[in-house]
Amino acid sequence: MPLVDTTQAVNPNLLDHAGSKWRSMIRIDTTGGDVDDVSDHIFRFMPERLIYAEGDSWFDKFTPLPHGGMNLLDSIRLPFVSAVVDVSHIGDEVRSMVQGHQARQTRAMFKLFDFHAILLSAGGNDLKNVFAELFAAKAANDRGFTSDWQPQDLDKLANPRSYTQFFEEVIHNIGRFVDLRNSSENDTTRKAPIFVHGYDYFQPRDAGATVFAGSRIGTGPWLYPSMHDAGLTPAQMRSAADAVIDELNDQLKATVAKMANVHVIDARGLLTPANPAATGSNADWMDEIHPNKQGFTKLAQNRWDVPLARKLGWEPSAGDLVPSVQPTNFSTALGPQPIQMA
Questions:
Q1: Cis bond before residue 221 (omega within 30° of 0)
Q2: Which is nearest to 54 in space by CA: 111, 112, 123?
Q3: Residue 275 — left, alpha, or beta (φ > 0 → left; ψ -120 to 50 → alpha)?
Q4: Of 34, 55, 59, 100, which residue has the fewest beta carbons closer than 10 angstroms?
């Protein structure tokens, strides 16, 4: 399947008036997999389109109180009364989504309900673990690194191909998730398109997630401490992070985008990276690895709304579309690299 066309966005005139049919999705939270609760919500709201969302904190994030909208599901707008059954878990790796309770939950949902689209946010927590394993290996003088950081080591960090093996299991497990859809006994769900996304370039920095706005209560930062302790400069941190992002996106393009009725959204280059010295929300990022509301809105409007709406049956009329915002922030892995958009 081709990559998602990200060259068009919804005309803002369709979104920004009182009578607009474009609206956010009704979220049905069911991390416990309560089928009866989903049925009750469907009966109450009678959505025109039903969507299933499995994933990590880009979908399901405990946003800083009292702020909201700090996740992708809240930012997406569709021209239908749509409900999204959200079974996402903060901190999930892809393997958790395709085994045990979560796999059984998904099978049950796919069997019982007519889903018109399936959204998957996967790989972000695996990405964090790449660095944990990498720097642990460095401390143990493994994987061909020298005892101190040398130029050749920094070249390894900034080379996307250094991370190929880290994501092989991620790609394999995304395939297992696709198999869950393909094996569904529900005809509508079995034919539902799956949307998978990569991640955008970010600046590793001393900025963790917060539970209460303005406080330091929360988790993270996730990459910055080990990179800082290793003596990397902000530019070297950014190059290493860019390389990991590039490798994940390249593997999604090479394998996942070729699976039947699976669509890969390339988010790279859209968001403005935070200042390396910023310890709170800055530019398009709330913390080290999560966009803020502005960032998620930018992602939804320029990468998600149009392709998802079209797959759900929207047929744009003349003037309904405008050019989307295209990449302006390019990879610093092995030097600036152009992004090949669909």
A1: yes
A2: 123
A3: beta
A4: 100
**Structure tokens, 228:** 């800082």
Q: Which amino acid is at 245?
A: I
pLDDT, average across residues 194-213: 88
Q: What are phi and psi of 286, to 5 degrees?
A: -80, -40
pLDDT given for residue 303 in this prediction? 97
As a whole number of angstroms, the distance between CA 53 and CA 78 comes to 15
Q: Give the Cα separation of 137 and 143 in Å (integer).
A: 6
Alpha carbons 59 and 249: distance in angstroms, whole number: 18
Contacts of residue 29, defined as CB under 8 A and 6 or more positions apart, other chains included, come to: 60, 86
Q: 3-class DSSP state for residue 238?
A: helix
H or E segment and range at residue 31 = none
| Amino acid at residue number 115 | F
Q: What is the largest CA-CA distance in the chain?
A: 64
Q: Answer for the pair 64, 213: CB distance below 8 angstroms, yes or no.
A: yes
Report the predicted TM-score, pTM, of the whole model to 2 decimal places.
0.91
